[in-house]
Protein backbone atom coordinates (compact mmCIF):
# COMPACT_ATOMS: atom_id res chain seq x y z
CA UNK A 1 0.00 0.00 0.00
CA UNK A 2 1.45 3.30 -1.11
CA UNK A 3 0.98 6.46 0.94
CA UNK A 4 -2.41 7.94 0.11
CA UNK A 5 -3.71 4.83 -1.73
CA UNK A 6 -6.30 4.28 0.99
CA UNK A 7 -8.52 6.86 -0.71
CA UNK A 8 -9.66 4.11 -3.14
CA UNK A 9 -10.94 1.95 -0.29
CA UNK A 10 -14.66 1.57 0.01
CA UNK A 11 -14.81 -0.31 3.30
CA UNK A 12 -13.44 -0.26 6.79
CA UNK A 13 -10.79 -2.74 7.86
CA UNK A 14 -12.17 -6.28 8.10
CA UNK A 15 -9.33 -8.02 9.95
CA UNK A 16 -10.61 -11.24 11.49
CA UNK A 17 -10.98 -11.79 15.20
CA UNK A 18 -12.55 -14.49 17.33
CA UNK A 19 -15.98 -12.94 16.90
CA UNK A 20 -15.59 -11.42 13.43
CA UNK A 21 -14.61 -14.59 11.56
CA UNK A 22 -13.29 -14.28 8.01
CA UNK A 23 -14.99 -16.50 5.44
CA UNK A 24 -11.99 -18.11 3.70
CA UNK A 25 -12.19 -20.68 0.93
CA UNK A 26 -11.47 -23.47 3.42
CA UNK A 27 -13.97 -22.30 6.04
CA UNK A 28 -14.05 -19.71 8.80
CA UNK A 29 -10.77 -18.15 9.91
CA UNK A 30 -10.60 -16.79 13.46
CA UNK A 31 -7.66 -14.81 14.82
CA UNK A 32 -6.82 -14.55 18.51
CA UNK A 33 -4.68 -11.69 19.75
CA UNK A 34 -1.86 -12.62 22.11
CA UNK A 35 -0.37 -9.39 23.51
CA UNK A 36 3.40 -9.69 23.83
CA UNK A 37 3.15 -13.22 22.39
CA UNK A 38 2.81 -14.59 25.91
CA UNK A 39 0.67 -17.68 26.31
CA UNK A 40 0.30 -19.82 29.39
CA UNK A 41 0.72 -23.52 28.81
CA UNK A 42 -2.92 -24.10 29.76
CA UNK A 43 -4.13 -21.57 27.18
CA UNK A 44 -1.94 -23.15 24.52
CA UNK A 45 -3.51 -26.52 25.37
CA UNK A 46 -6.99 -25.03 25.11
CA UNK A 47 -6.10 -23.49 21.75
CA UNK A 48 -4.86 -26.88 20.55
CA UNK A 49 -8.05 -28.56 21.71
CA UNK A 50 -10.27 -25.92 20.13
CA UNK A 51 -8.32 -26.02 16.85
CA UNK A 52 -8.72 -29.78 16.70
CA UNK A 53 -12.32 -29.82 17.88
CA UNK A 54 -13.71 -26.87 15.91
CA UNK A 55 -11.28 -26.24 13.06
CA UNK A 56 -8.57 -27.78 10.90
CA UNK A 57 -6.47 -28.93 13.84
CA UNK A 58 -3.65 -26.49 13.08
CA UNK A 59 -2.73 -23.33 14.98
CA UNK A 60 -1.19 -20.79 12.61
CA UNK A 61 1.33 -18.35 14.07
CA UNK A 62 1.26 -14.85 12.62
CA UNK A 63 3.94 -12.21 12.09
CA UNK A 64 2.41 -10.25 14.97
CA UNK A 65 2.86 -13.12 17.40
CA UNK A 66 -0.87 -13.77 17.29
CA UNK A 67 -2.53 -17.08 16.40
CA UNK A 68 -5.29 -18.09 14.02
CA UNK A 69 -7.36 -21.17 13.33
CA UNK A 70 -8.83 -22.06 9.94
CA UNK A 71 -11.52 -24.41 8.76
CA UNK A 72 -14.21 -23.39 11.23
CA UNK A 73 -17.60 -24.55 10.01
CA UNK A 74 -20.62 -22.30 10.41
CA UNK A 75 -21.83 -24.28 13.37
CA UNK A 76 -18.44 -24.28 15.09
CA UNK A 77 -17.62 -20.58 15.14
CA UNK A 78 -19.65 -19.57 18.18
CA UNK A 79 -18.38 -22.58 20.09
CA UNK A 80 -14.80 -21.69 19.24
CA UNK A 81 -15.26 -18.11 20.48
CA UNK A 82 -16.89 -19.38 23.67
CA UNK A 83 -13.92 -21.66 24.34
CA UNK A 84 -11.49 -18.79 23.78
CA UNK A 85 -13.47 -16.56 26.16
CA UNK A 86 -13.60 -19.28 28.81
CA UNK A 87 -9.82 -19.70 28.52
CA UNK A 88 -9.26 -15.99 29.10
CA UNK A 89 -8.12 -15.39 25.52
CA UNK A 90 -10.97 -13.01 24.77
CA UNK A 91 -10.90 -10.52 27.63
CA UNK A 92 -12.63 -7.72 25.72
CA UNK A 93 -15.46 -8.23 23.26
CA UNK A 94 -15.21 -4.64 22.02
CA UNK A 95 -11.42 -4.40 21.68
CA UNK A 96 -10.48 -7.96 20.69
CA UNK A 97 -9.15 -7.03 17.23
CA UNK A 98 -7.09 -4.01 18.35
CA UNK A 99 -4.90 -5.80 20.94
CA UNK A 100 -2.01 -6.11 18.48
CA UNK A 101 1.00 -5.69 20.76
CA UNK A 102 4.44 -6.97 19.87
CA UNK A 103 7.15 -7.22 22.53
CA UNK A 104 10.73 -8.46 22.53
CA UNK A 105 10.20 -12.23 22.93
CA UNK A 106 13.09 -12.68 25.36
CA UNK A 107 12.36 -9.63 27.45
CA UNK A 108 12.90 -10.21 31.16
CA UNK A 109 14.55 -13.59 30.46
CA UNK A 110 18.04 -12.80 29.30
CA UNK A 111 20.13 -9.76 30.12
CA UNK A 112 20.07 -8.07 26.73
CA UNK A 113 17.25 -5.61 27.24
CA UNK A 114 17.39 -2.29 29.01
CA UNK A 115 14.11 -3.07 30.77
CA UNK A 116 11.51 -5.81 31.12
CA UNK A 117 8.78 -4.96 28.63
CA UNK A 118 6.39 -7.54 30.11
CA UNK A 119 4.73 -5.20 32.63
CA UNK A 120 4.38 -2.56 29.89
CA UNK A 121 2.54 -5.09 27.70
CA UNK A 122 0.06 -5.73 30.51
CA UNK A 123 -0.37 -2.01 31.18
CA UNK A 124 -0.87 -1.16 27.52
CA UNK A 125 -3.37 -3.98 27.03
CA UNK A 126 -5.37 -2.99 30.11
CA UNK A 127 -5.47 0.72 29.33
CA UNK A 128 -6.14 0.15 25.63
CA UNK A 129 -9.19 -1.98 26.42
CA UNK A 130 -10.40 0.59 28.97
CA UNK A 131 -10.72 3.36 26.35
CA UNK A 132 -13.97 2.97 24.41
CA UNK A 133 -12.79 5.22 21.59
CA UNK A 134 -9.84 2.95 20.82
CA UNK A 135 -12.17 0.09 19.92
CA UNK A 136 -12.37 1.95 16.61
CA UNK A 137 -8.71 1.35 15.76
CA UNK A 138 -8.25 -0.72 12.61
CA UNK A 139 -7.29 -4.33 13.26
CA UNK A 140 -4.08 -3.67 11.33
CA UNK A 141 -2.82 -1.00 13.73
CA UNK A 142 0.27 -2.38 15.49
CA UNK A 143 1.96 -1.50 18.79
CA UNK A 144 5.50 -2.60 19.66
CA UNK A 145 7.27 -2.58 23.02
CA UNK A 146 10.95 -3.12 22.42
CA UNK A 147 13.00 -3.69 25.57
CA UNK A 148 16.02 -1.88 24.16
CA UNK A 149 17.64 -4.66 22.13
CA UNK A 150 16.11 -3.43 18.88
CA UNK A 151 14.43 -6.65 17.78
CA UNK A 152 10.81 -5.51 17.37
CA UNK A 153 11.03 -1.71 17.15
CA UNK A 154 11.89 -1.96 13.47
CA UNK A 155 9.19 -4.42 12.47
CA UNK A 156 7.00 -1.61 11.21
CA UNK A 157 4.79 -0.79 14.18
CA UNK A 158 2.40 2.12 13.91
CA UNK A 159 3.34 3.12 17.45
CA UNK A 160 6.21 1.68 19.44
CA UNK A 161 8.85 2.46 21.99
CA UNK A 162 12.55 1.72 22.01
CA UNK A 163 14.40 2.59 25.22
CA UNK A 164 17.45 4.75 24.62
CA UNK A 165 18.55 4.51 28.26
CA UNK A 166 17.29 3.35 31.63
CA UNK A 167 14.78 6.19 31.92
CA UNK A 168 14.01 7.35 28.40
CA UNK A 169 12.45 5.82 25.31
CA UNK A 170 12.22 6.85 21.68
CA UNK A 171 8.70 6.97 20.28
CA UNK A 172 8.55 5.00 17.03
CA UNK A 173 5.81 6.04 14.60
CA UNK A 174 5.08 4.30 11.31
CA UNK A 175 8.17 2.15 11.80
CA UNK A 176 10.67 5.00 12.21
CA UNK A 177 12.03 7.16 15.00
CA UNK A 178 9.61 10.08 15.43
CA UNK A 179 12.30 12.16 17.13
CA UNK A 180 10.20 12.35 20.29
CA UNK A 181 11.51 11.06 23.60
CA UNK A 182 9.38 10.13 26.59
CA UNK A 183 10.19 8.96 30.11
CA UNK A 184 9.87 5.17 30.31
CA UNK A 185 7.19 5.68 32.95
CA UNK A 186 5.08 7.55 30.38
CA UNK A 187 5.68 5.13 27.51
CA UNK A 188 2.20 3.60 27.54
CA UNK A 189 0.61 7.04 27.82
CA UNK A 190 2.54 8.09 24.72
CA UNK A 191 1.48 4.98 22.77
CA UNK A 192 -2.17 5.53 23.62
CA UNK A 193 -1.82 9.19 22.67
CA UNK A 194 -0.40 8.11 19.31
CA UNK A 195 -3.34 5.77 18.69
CA UNK A 196 -5.81 8.52 19.56
CA UNK A 197 -3.91 10.99 17.41
CA UNK A 198 -4.17 8.59 14.46
CA UNK A 199 -7.91 8.17 14.97
CA UNK A 200 -8.29 11.96 15.04
CA UNK A 201 -7.01 12.14 11.46
CA UNK A 202 -9.98 12.55 9.10
CA UNK A 203 -9.03 9.61 6.85
CA UNK A 204 -8.67 7.29 9.85
CA UNK A 205 -11.92 8.48 11.33
CA UNK A 206 -13.67 7.52 8.10
CA UNK A 207 -12.19 4.01 8.38
CA UNK A 208 -10.30 4.33 5.09
CA UNK A 209 -6.73 4.59 6.42
CA UNK A 210 -5.62 1.59 8.45
CA UNK A 211 -1.98 2.46 9.24
CA UNK A 212 -0.22 5.70 10.18
CA UNK A 213 2.19 5.17 7.29
CA UNK A 214 -0.65 5.31 4.76
CA UNK A 215 -1.41 8.93 5.62
CA UNK A 216 0.61 11.55 3.74
CA UNK A 217 2.89 13.01 6.42
CA UNK A 218 1.17 10.65 8.86
CA UNK A 219 4.06 10.15 11.28
CA UNK A 220 4.74 13.89 11.52
CA UNK A 221 1.08 14.72 12.01
CA UNK A 222 0.63 12.10 14.70
CA UNK A 223 3.88 13.22 16.40
CA UNK A 224 2.60 16.81 16.52
CA UNK A 225 -0.66 15.67 18.12
CA UNK A 226 1.21 13.48 20.64
CA UNK A 227 3.50 16.35 21.57
CA UNK A 228 0.48 18.60 22.19
CA UNK A 229 -1.39 15.91 24.12
CA UNK A 230 1.53 15.15 26.43
CA UNK A 231 2.80 18.70 26.85
CA UNK A 232 1.36 19.04 30.32
CA UNK A 233 1.57 15.42 31.46
CA UNK A 234 4.08 14.12 33.97
CA UNK A 235 7.44 13.93 32.28
CA UNK A 236 6.17 15.56 29.11
CA UNK A 237 7.75 14.78 25.77
CA UNK A 238 10.89 16.16 24.26
CA UNK A 239 12.98 16.00 21.12
CA UNK A 240 16.39 14.43 21.46
CA UNK A 241 19.54 16.44 21.10
CA UNK A 242 21.19 13.39 19.61
CA UNK A 243 20.72 12.06 16.10
CA UNK A 244 17.63 10.08 15.30
CA UNK A 245 17.86 6.33 15.62
CA UNK A 246 18.40 4.48 12.41
CA UNK A 247 15.48 2.34 11.35
CA UNK A 248 17.32 -0.85 10.61
CA UNK A 249 16.90 -4.27 12.10
CA UNK A 250 19.74 -4.95 14.49
CA UNK A 251 21.45 -8.28 14.86
CA UNK A 252 19.01 -8.96 17.69
CA UNK A 253 16.09 -8.75 15.27
CA UNK A 254 16.55 -12.31 14.06
CA UNK A 255 14.49 -15.31 14.82
CA UNK A 256 15.78 -16.88 18.05
CA UNK A 257 16.37 -20.55 17.30
CA UNK A 258 18.41 -22.93 19.46
CA UNK A 259 19.82 -22.49 22.93
CA UNK A 260 19.92 -19.01 24.43
CA UNK A 261 22.01 -18.47 27.55
CA UNK A 262 20.21 -16.86 30.48
CA UNK A 263 21.62 -15.41 33.69
CA UNK A 264 21.99 -17.91 36.53
CA UNK A 265 22.89 -20.87 34.33
CA UNK A 266 19.41 -21.46 32.90
CA UNK A 267 18.73 -21.43 29.18
CA UNK A 268 15.88 -20.69 26.81
CA UNK A 269 15.16 -22.73 23.69
CA UNK A 270 14.08 -20.97 20.51
CA UNK A 271 11.91 -23.18 18.31
CA UNK A 272 11.14 -22.47 14.67
CA UNK A 273 7.80 -23.70 13.39
CA UNK A 274 7.92 -24.65 9.68
CA UNK A 275 5.68 -22.24 7.78
CA UNK A 276 4.23 -21.11 11.11
CA UNK A 277 1.86 -24.09 11.21
CA UNK A 278 1.63 -25.74 14.60
CA UNK A 279 -0.33 -28.98 14.69
CA UNK A 280 -2.41 -29.54 17.80
CA UNK A 281 -0.11 -32.35 18.94
CA UNK A 282 2.96 -30.12 18.55
CA UNK A 283 1.26 -27.39 20.57
CA UNK A 284 0.45 -29.92 23.29
CA UNK A 285 4.09 -30.99 23.36
CA UNK A 286 5.28 -27.38 23.69
CA UNK A 287 2.83 -26.86 26.54
CA UNK A 288 4.17 -30.00 28.25
CA UNK A 289 7.77 -28.77 27.92
CA UNK A 290 7.13 -25.20 29.13
CA UNK A 291 9.11 -25.28 32.35
CA UNK A 292 7.83 -21.93 33.57
CA UNK A 293 4.25 -22.62 32.53
CA UNK A 294 4.50 -20.12 29.68
CA UNK A 295 5.48 -20.13 26.01
CA UNK A 296 6.33 -17.00 24.08
CA UNK A 297 5.35 -16.61 20.47
CA UNK A 298 7.69 -14.61 18.26
CA UNK A 299 6.95 -12.33 15.31
CA UNK A 300 9.01 -14.76 13.24
CA UNK A 301 6.26 -17.34 13.71
CA UNK A 302 8.28 -19.30 16.24
CA UNK A 303 8.15 -20.11 19.93
CA UNK A 304 10.51 -19.62 22.87
CA UNK A 305 10.59 -21.88 25.93
CA UNK A 306 12.37 -20.21 28.81
CA UNK A 307 13.78 -21.15 32.21
CA UNK A 308 15.09 -24.60 31.21
CA UNK A 309 18.20 -26.26 32.53
CA UNK A 310 20.61 -27.66 29.98
CA UNK A 311 19.46 -31.23 30.31
CA UNK A 312 15.86 -30.15 29.84
CA UNK A 313 16.83 -28.12 26.80
CA UNK A 314 18.63 -31.07 25.21
CA UNK A 315 15.73 -33.41 25.92
CA UNK A 316 13.17 -30.84 24.75
CA UNK A 317 15.07 -30.19 21.52
CA UNK A 318 15.14 -33.90 20.75
CA UNK A 319 11.42 -34.31 21.37
CA UNK A 320 10.52 -31.19 19.40
CA UNK A 321 12.74 -32.20 16.47
CA UNK A 322 11.18 -35.65 16.41
CA UNK A 323 7.78 -33.93 16.34
CA UNK A 324 8.73 -31.91 13.23
CA UNK A 325 9.77 -28.62 14.81
CA UNK A 326 13.16 -26.96 14.39
CA UNK A 327 15.76 -26.15 17.06
CA UNK A 328 18.82 -25.92 14.81
CA UNK A 329 19.75 -22.32 13.94
CA UNK A 330 21.32 -23.57 10.68
CA UNK A 331 18.22 -25.32 9.45
CA UNK A 332 17.15 -24.33 5.93
CA UNK A 333 13.63 -23.94 7.30
CA UNK A 334 14.71 -20.73 9.01
CA UNK A 335 13.34 -17.74 7.13
CA UNK A 336 10.93 -19.66 4.86
CA UNK A 337 7.42 -18.20 4.98
CA UNK A 338 4.31 -18.59 2.84
CA UNK A 339 0.86 -17.09 2.53
CA UNK A 340 -2.23 -19.27 2.89
CA UNK A 341 -2.34 -20.21 -0.80
CA UNK A 342 -4.61 -22.99 -2.03
CA UNK A 343 -6.94 -24.31 -0.76
CA UNK A 344 -7.40 -21.61 1.90
CA UNK A 345 -7.38 -18.62 -0.42
CA UNK A 346 -9.55 -18.43 -3.52
CA UNK A 347 -7.16 -15.98 -5.17
CA UNK A 348 -4.19 -18.31 -5.04
CA UNK A 349 -2.73 -19.82 -8.18
CA UNK A 350 -0.91 -22.59 -6.31
CA UNK A 351 -0.60 -24.60 -3.12
CA UNK A 352 2.32 -22.46 -2.05
CA UNK A 353 2.79 -24.10 1.32
CA UNK A 354 3.24 -27.51 -0.23
CA UNK A 355 5.60 -26.08 -2.83
CA UNK A 356 7.58 -24.13 -0.21
CA UNK A 357 7.94 -27.30 1.87
CA UNK A 358 9.09 -29.22 -1.20
CA UNK A 359 11.75 -26.58 -1.85
CA UNK A 360 13.42 -26.95 1.56
CA UNK A 361 16.36 -29.32 1.31
CA UNK A 362 16.32 -32.35 3.59
CA UNK A 363 18.47 -32.02 6.66
CA UNK A 364 21.77 -33.51 5.37
CA UNK A 365 21.86 -30.72 2.80
CA UNK A 366 21.88 -27.96 5.37
CA UNK A 367 23.21 -24.81 3.84
CA UNK A 368 26.92 -24.31 3.97
CA UNK A 369 28.89 -21.13 4.14
CA UNK A 370 30.96 -20.05 1.12
CA UNK A 371 33.93 -21.77 2.74
CA UNK A 372 32.05 -25.04 2.77
CA UNK A 373 31.69 -25.31 6.55
CA UNK A 374 28.28 -26.19 7.86
CA UNK A 375 26.99 -24.30 10.88
CA UNK A 376 26.21 -26.90 13.52
CA UNK A 377 25.08 -26.85 17.11
CA UNK A 378 27.54 -25.20 19.41
CA UNK A 379 29.11 -23.17 16.63
CA UNK A 380 31.41 -26.00 15.52
CA UNK A 381 31.55 -27.26 11.96
CA UNK A 382 30.67 -30.51 10.33
CA UNK A 383 28.98 -32.16 7.44
CA UNK A 384 25.70 -33.39 8.92
CA UNK A 385 25.02 -37.08 9.17
CA UNK A 386 21.32 -37.77 8.99
CA UNK A 387 19.36 -39.49 6.33
CA UNK A 388 16.72 -38.14 4.01
CA UNK A 389 13.15 -38.14 5.16
CA UNK A 390 13.84 -37.18 8.76
CA UNK A 391 11.69 -34.52 10.33
CA UNK A 392 12.55 -30.91 9.53
CA UNK A 393 15.18 -29.42 11.76
CA UNK A 394 18.49 -30.97 12.53
CA UNK A 395 20.41 -32.80 15.14
CA UNK A 396 17.95 -35.66 15.53
CA UNK A 397 16.73 -37.14 18.77
CA UNK A 398 19.45 -37.03 21.38
CA UNK A 399 21.60 -34.41 19.66
CA UNK A 400 22.53 -31.25 21.53
CA UNK A 401 20.41 -28.30 20.44
CA UNK A 402 22.05 -25.57 18.38
CA UNK A 403 23.16 -22.31 19.90
CA UNK A 404 21.15 -19.28 18.88
CA UNK A 405 23.28 -16.57 17.37
CA UNK A 406 25.63 -18.97 15.63
CA UNK A 407 26.39 -17.97 12.02
CA UNK A 408 23.50 -18.96 9.82
CA UNK A 409 24.63 -18.94 6.21
CA UNK A 410 21.97 -19.61 3.64
CA UNK A 411 19.03 -18.37 5.67
CA UNK A 412 18.06 -15.49 3.41
CA UNK A 413 14.35 -14.97 4.07
CA UNK A 414 12.14 -16.37 1.30
CA UNK A 415 8.45 -15.66 1.03
CA UNK A 416 6.12 -17.76 -1.13
CA UNK A 417 2.85 -16.17 -2.24
CA UNK A 418 -0.08 -17.41 -4.28
CA UNK A 419 -0.62 -14.08 -5.99
CA UNK A 420 0.79 -10.60 -6.39
CA UNK A 421 -0.64 -9.44 -3.08
CA UNK A 422 2.16 -11.26 -1.23
CA UNK A 423 0.21 -11.47 2.04
CA UNK A 424 2.41 -12.07 5.06
CA UNK A 425 5.62 -10.93 3.40
CA UNK A 426 8.15 -10.19 6.16
CA UNK A 427 9.78 -6.79 6.22
CA UNK A 428 13.31 -6.19 5.03
CA UNK A 429 15.29 -7.97 2.33
CA UNK A 430 13.34 -11.01 1.20
CA UNK A 431 13.42 -13.24 -1.87
CA UNK A 432 9.87 -13.33 -3.23
CA UNK A 433 8.45 -16.43 -4.93
CA UNK A 434 5.10 -15.49 -6.45
CA UNK A 435 2.85 -17.97 -8.24
CA UNK A 436 2.09 -17.28 -11.89
CA UNK A 437 -0.10 -19.00 -14.47
CA UNK A 438 2.93 -21.02 -15.62
CA UNK A 439 4.90 -21.54 -12.42
CA UNK A 440 6.61 -19.02 -10.16
CA UNK A 441 8.35 -15.68 -10.46
CA UNK A 442 11.41 -15.55 -8.19
CA UNK A 443 12.67 -12.05 -7.37
CA UNK A 444 15.27 -10.42 -5.16
CA UNK A 445 16.50 -6.83 -5.07
CA UNK A 446 14.38 -5.87 -8.05
CA UNK A 447 15.68 -8.62 -10.33
CA UNK A 448 13.47 -11.54 -11.24
CA UNK A 449 13.30 -14.85 -13.05
CA UNK A 450 10.28 -16.75 -14.37
CA UNK A 451 10.43 -20.45 -13.51
CA UNK A 452 8.31 -23.05 -15.27
CA UNK A 453 7.72 -25.56 -12.48
CA UNK A 454 8.55 -26.45 -8.90
CA UNK A 455 11.90 -28.07 -9.76
CA UNK A 456 13.13 -25.00 -11.62
CA UNK A 457 11.75 -22.75 -8.88
CA UNK A 458 13.44 -24.78 -6.15
CA UNK A 459 16.75 -24.61 -7.99
CA UNK A 460 16.47 -20.82 -8.33
CA UNK A 461 15.54 -20.34 -4.67
CA UNK A 462 18.30 -22.66 -3.45
CA UNK A 463 20.90 -20.87 -5.56
CA UNK A 464 19.80 -17.50 -4.21
CA UNK A 465 19.95 -18.68 -0.61
CA UNK A 466 23.36 -20.30 -1.06
CA UNK A 467 24.79 -17.08 -2.46
CA UNK A 468 23.42 -14.84 0.29
S1 LIG B 1 -1.00 -13.50 -1.31
FE1 LIG B 1 -2.77 -13.83 -2.65
S2 LIG B 1 -3.04 -16.05 -2.61
FE2 LIG B 1 -1.80 -15.53 -0.83
S3 LIG B 1 -3.23 -15.27 0.86
FE3 LIG B 1 -2.86 -13.23 -0.06
S4 LIG B 1 -4.53 -12.99 -1.53
FE4 LIG B 1 -4.41 -15.17 -1.05
Explain what you see:
With 468 residues, the protein is an alpha+beta fold. It has 2 domains: 101-251, Sulfite Reductase Hemoprotein, domain 1 (2-Layer Sandwich); 254-467, no CATH class. 24% of the residues lie in helices and 21% in strands. The protein contains 10 helices and 22 strands. It has helices at 41-54, 77-86, 118-129, 187-199, 202-205, 218-230, 280-289, 310-322, 352-359, 454-467; strands spanning 22-24, 27-32, 38-40, 58-61, 67-72, 101-103, 143-145, 159-163, 168-173, 176-183, 258-261, 267-272, 277-279, 294-297, 302-308, 336-338, 374-375, 381-382, 414-417, 431-436, 439-444, 447-451. The strands form 5 sheets. Strands 1-2-5-4-13 form a 5-stranded antiparallel β-sheet. Helix 1 (41-54) packs antiparallel against helix 7 and helix 4 crosses helix 6 (218-230). The longest helix is centred in the first third of the chain and has 14 residues, at 41-54. The two termini are 28 Å apart. Bound molecules: iron/sulfur cluster. Iron/sulfur cluster is lined by residues 339-341, 345, 347-348, 417-419, 421-423. The site of iron/sulfur cluster has 12 residues, from loops.
Short synopsis of the structure:
The protein is an alpha+beta fold.
Q: Residue ranges: pLDDT <50 for 5 or more in a row? A: 364-399
Bound molecules: iron/sulfur cluster
The tally of helices reads: 10
Query: What is the residue-averaged pLDDT?
Result: 87
In terms of quaternary structure, the protein is: single chain
Distance between the termini: 28 Å
Class of secondary structure makeup: alpha+beta
What's the overall geometry?
globular
Largest sheet: 5 strands, antiparallel
- Total beta strands: 22
Amino acid sequence: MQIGDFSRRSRADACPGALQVHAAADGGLARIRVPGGRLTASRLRELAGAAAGCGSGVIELTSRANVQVRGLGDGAQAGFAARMAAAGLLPSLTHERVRNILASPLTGCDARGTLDAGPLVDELDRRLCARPGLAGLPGRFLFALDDGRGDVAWLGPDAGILPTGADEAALILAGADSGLRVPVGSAVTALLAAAEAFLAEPAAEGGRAWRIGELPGGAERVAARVRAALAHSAGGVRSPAAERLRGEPSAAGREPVGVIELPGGRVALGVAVPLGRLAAAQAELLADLAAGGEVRLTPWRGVVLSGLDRAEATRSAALLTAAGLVTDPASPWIGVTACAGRPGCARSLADVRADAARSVPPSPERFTSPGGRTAVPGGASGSGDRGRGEPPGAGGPGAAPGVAGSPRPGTLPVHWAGCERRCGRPGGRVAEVVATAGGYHVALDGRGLDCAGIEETTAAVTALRREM
